[in-house]
Every structure is written in C-alpha cells, then in structure tokens.
Fold Transcriptional regulator, LysR family.
Amino acid sequence: METRVLRYFSEIVREGNISNAARHLHVSQPALSRQIMDLETELGVTLFERGHRQIKLTQEGHYLYRRSQEILAMIDKTEYHLQGQDMISGVLDIGAGESASLKPVMKVIHQIMQEYPEVKVNLVSGDSELIRQRVNNGVLEFGILMGHENMINYATLELPHPNRWGVLMRSDSPLAQQTEIRPSDLIGHPLMASAQTRRQDTFRHWAGELLGQFKFVGNYNLLYNAALLAQTGACLVLTYQDLINTSASQNLAFRPLSSQVVDNNTLIWSKDKPLSNLSQLFLRLLQSEIKKEKLVN
C-alpha cells in the first residue's frame, strides 16, 4: 500500500467523487479509478459504493480513511522534522477535551502564530482515551487530560485553573433557583453526561451511594448538541463551568456541584520521543506563562 495511493484515496473521500479528485490531483480519471481498484484488489475489500455521480464509503472504506489520516499526518511530520531541524515552523498538534481553563495554552499558541506566521495548528477535541491513543501513536505531540488520570508513562505539566463541575439546565428549572447542586437534588431527573464523566472517580466520589439512583438517559461527546437538548427541558447535562453561553437569551442556567468538585488539566507528551523545535518552543513559552500566572495570583 503506497503513500501516494493513500493520498489519492483521501482526496477522493474529501471531494466525494473521482472526477473532482482527479482534477485536483492532476491525473486522469481513468488512471485514478484504476489506482483505487488496484488498492481494493490488494486489500481484498471494497472501499466505495459507486453511484452515478457520487461515491459512498463502505465500512472498510471508513476505517481506511480514518487510519490513512493518521498515517499521512505521521509521514508529513516525519519529513518536516528531517528536512528542517533548525527552523520554527511546521504543525503543532494538540488534543484536549473542552475546557474554558485552556486559555493559557491558547495564549501561547497565539504568541507563536504571531511570531512565526508559517506555523500551523491542529486542535483535536476528544476524551482522554482518544487523546492518549493519538499521543501514543505520535499523531499528537501534546495532549491535555482532565481529572485524575494515570500519567506515569508521560512527561507532564499541570496547568492552572481547574475545571469546576456543575449542571446545565433550562433557566426555568426549579434547580436553577439553587446556588449549587447536591447529589440528592439529581434523583428523579433525567441526566446526560459524557461517558468519561460517569467513569471518573471525581464525580463518583461526589455522588457517593446515591449514584445508583441517578437516571442517566444517555451520553454526549459534543456539549453544544447536549446543550440544545437541555434547552428543551428533556434532561439536565453534567459538564464543566463556562463552556456554554448561559445568558438570558439562551434560556439556560449553570449551577455548580456542591463541595467544589473540580478536575485539573494536565499537559502530557511522550517521554521517549524527541520534541521538534516548535514543540520545545511551545513548552518553554507555556511554562513561562504558568509562572507568570502563579506570581499574579
């Protein structure tokens, strides 16, 4: 399986049909079709369901596309590191969950982009399992994990400003009249949370023996969509503070959990893989920014 053919395959997926992909790749449509058919023969699978104008990925095609993006990103990064060792350029790949407490990280990224306009940034949102996986396989240089995680296999840097847990709800909900939410307040209410939330010790310790009485009606991985559901009054949503606009026009309210339930943010990176010049710069600037914030506070 050649890298060139993987790039051809990825371009076809992005364009949605072979004709457009062939124009962008500056190859003939018959030649491109033949390359993909050869790839299918080599792998022994069908990658596309071919229609009159558009093509649709099969299950095997979806899998190959996801993996090809990781493979091609690794190849591009490797080529860059080999060809430009003394330059501050390239791509900074960072993965994290959603948190308003990541502002120091974004401040440093802004500084780098201002000073080095050729630098590109990839921000990947996901839970801790996804972030760990992509840091482990080298697709992400850095990851930010939230909560109490086992980080013994990584180099780490704890970030300031922990995330406070709370409940997002309609502003006319009876619970919105309270200043904070106790475990007993959630009994009898339909709840939605991320799958990671329900596994975390932080939340489980707060809920205690009442956890078994909570009525979870589903999980979310995109908070914005869960907030839209909360606006209907269908459920309460467990999330971090300051992620969703709760102004009066949004008909939403956020109330923190009692006892100051918080998760820390920790930057991780591989202990064994050397950092690029760009990544080293990012780390130095972030360490400096954290020191400044500690002095101010």
In short: The chain has three domains: 3-81, 85-161+268-296, 164-263. The CA atoms of residues 166 and 256 lie 4 Å apart. The two ends are 55 Å apart (CA to CA).
